[in-house]
Every structure is written in C-alpha cells, then in structure tokens.
Amino acid sequence: MIRAYKFLLRPTVRQTVALSEMLRDHCSLYNGALQERRDAYRHTSKTTVRYGDQSAQLKEIRAFDSERQGRWSFSSQQATLRRLDKAFAAFFKRVKAGLTPGYPRFKGTGHFDTVIFPKDGDGCRWDSAPHDPQTRVRLQGVGHVRVHRHRAVKGRVKTIGVKREGNRWYVVLACDDVPAELLPDTGALVGIDMGVTHFLTTSDGEHVANPRFLEAAADDLAEAQRHLATFPKRARRHTKAHRAAARKVAQIHQKIRRQRLDHAHKTALTLVRDHDVIAHERLNTAGMTRAPKPKPDPEQPGAFLPNGAAAKTSLTRSILDAGWGVFLAILANKAESAGRTVIAVDPRNTSRTCPSCGHTAKESRATQAKFECVRCRFAANADHVGATNVLNRAGLVLCDVA
C-alpha cells in the first residue's frame, strides 16, 4: 500500500529563515517559468514551451543565480517545474471538456507553501531508525532539521515534501510497500448515514454528535476578520499589525481544520475496529455545495429570479463544516490498512424508503428527524432508516459479488 506520513518539524531560528527562503526561491522559479510560457504563447506565434524545455534551462539558471537558485536541490526545482506543467495540463483538459478553464496563476509568497523532493537521498534524506527518538530530516541548503515523529514510519520512503501551514512547518513522507495491519474479524456489518444534525447515524441506531467546529469558533473568527478588514489597502502587507491580524485569522482556521481531522480519525477508527463491513452513501459533496446557477428574468432584462441561493447557504456551510469528504477518505484508508471492506451505495431515496415494506414516498419523511411510512405506518428516526437502507443495499452488492 501507499501511505503518507505527516510530522511536525522543529527548526531552529536560522533553519526557519532558510526554509522560508527555499519557498521564496521555488516560488520565484515557478512564476518565472509561468511568465516564460505566457510570453512564448503571446509573442512568438503561439509557441508552446514544455517541461523538457524549461528543465533544460535549470543548469544555466543555477549558474547565473548561484546565491539563490544554486543553493537548492536540482530535483526539487524540477518538481516545481513539473507542478506548473501539471497545472497547464489540467487547464487544457478543462478547455477540451468545455468547463471553466482557470488559467494557471502567478503564486504569491503566501500561497506557495510546499516544496517536493522526488527521491529520498537526492537533495534530502530521512534519517530515522525505528526506535531512535532523535529523528531528523536533512534538507539541502537548510541542514538537519529535528522532526517530532509521533509514530513509526513503515514501508519505503519515496518522496519527501516540506510544507508550511501558518507559522508551523511539516514534513510529508510518501511511502510505498507499507504492510497492512489486519485486525481480527468481528462478524459485524454496519451502514452509516451522514448528516448535519448528527455527524452520522449507524444502522444499529447509534448517533455520533456533530461537533460543529466552525460554528463554535464563529465569534472569534468574525472578530479576527473584522479586525483584519479595518486596515486600509495601502497599509496591507506593509505593517507588522496587518501581518499579525492575518496570522490570527489563519491560526483560527488551522485550529478548526485540526479539530475536524482529529474527530474524523477517531470516528473512523472506532468504526473500523468494530465492524468487518462498513457501508455508506456515495455522496457528491461538490455538487451538494455548489451554488445554484442564476436565473435571468425574461420579463426584466438585467434582473434575476429567485434561485434559492440564500436558503441553501446555511446547509452548504453545515455540510462543509461536517467534512464528509475528508471523513470518508480517512475511513477508506483505515479500512484498507485493517483489511476491512467499505462499500459505497447509491444514496437516492435512502431516507424515503420504508425498510419494512419497501415502499418509497416523499411523504413518508414527515420531518427532518421523523420517518413514518404512508403505507404500513412503520415509524422510526429518519437517519436510522437511511442507515438501515444503506446496509440493505450493501448486502445486495455483497450477494452480487459472491
């Protein structure tokens, strides 16, 4: 299996400065390569500059600017150019598909936060023994940086990434040949129904509370954002006060993200430990949170009809705060490592179908929490009904496979 490990770095003050300079110089390389592609297309009869052409120029660039570009790993700079090449490939793919193209943009120093080293031992080295508490990662131009390794790294380290999140630095290891840690069979099967009132409900009738981390931090976040908005445009990015205000907003968002990830990991681990088969709905979170398209008013040019965007805002915010997509991805990874089975089923009418008689009707969903079948009068919690139907559909999938 392929797995990623993310560890907190503990650099010295001098190493922190070097890490920031590494990001700055890789960002400059990315923007310079993007500018070259734009100029070649605009001024040279739409000539296309590819990754191979720009990679071949790296040796000259490093020799010309030895104090900045020459001090960093050659392979990490190639990875930065590949990142730009992938951005253009995705752009042309969207153009051909008729989607909104989204031309690659120049990166500001605050938005370029990752440097990738494609191979362990080439410009970087992961220095770690299984039981050595003094774990370090060696980075060319930075030195040996201490790592807070909170768990053992298994498998073979393939790529190493250095990432900045706010004022913290992390190392991300992509490992291959990671062995599975199989758990003993329990003989239990469960279906789960994702929601916003409850984070999830199982087919056993158990509710997992929705922590609503964003809602809990809404007042502090709003105050920090109001303070940030008080700075005039001419003072932005030029004063310590503005940078401190922006850092405060970022810290609140980072805390919310860490809380959400922690809750998702713990909930998924509980499900994986207690069940052999876990079934869930195949949710299109991006479609569910997409803003409705505007509806032009045919009778009044320039005016628009109501499209329900305001009413949907609260639901969209709740879905994104719950983090369904993150949770389901974590659940799938933990299940694969433990030898468990995860089945995604069609979500249509799971909360409108009676698990007793099989009748499907919109009217059976009396309220958000109450289900009462209009045919057989079976009554139960609507989320519990949805989880039961998810489990029943997963059973049909298992029968077809067998």
Kindly describe this structure.
By secondary structure, this protein is of the alpha+beta class. The protein has 2 domains: 3-176, no CATH class; 189-401, no CATH class. The chain contains 11 helices and 16 strands. The strands form 4 sheets. A 7-stranded antiparallel beta sheet has the order 2-6-7-1-5-4-3. It has a 5-stranded mixed beta sheet with strand order 10-9-8-11-14. Strands 12-13 form a two-stranded antiparallel ribbon. A hairpin with an 8-residue loop joins strand 3 (124-127) and strand 4.
Which helices and strands occur, and which strands form pairs?
Blueprint: E1 3-10, H1 13-43, H2 51-55, H3 58-64, H4 74-97, E2 114-117, E3 124-127, E4 136-139, E5 143-148, E6 156-165, E7 168-176, E8 189-194, E9 198-202, E10 207-209, H5 213-216, H6 218-229, H7 240-274, E11 277-281, H8 285-288, E12 295-296, E13 304-305, H9 309-322, H10 324-338, E14 341-345, E15 370-372, E16 379-381, H11 382-401
Parallel strand pairs: 8-11, 11-14
Antiparallel strand pairs: 1-5, 1-7, 2-6, 3-4, 4-5, 6-7, 8-9, 9-10, 12-13, 15-16
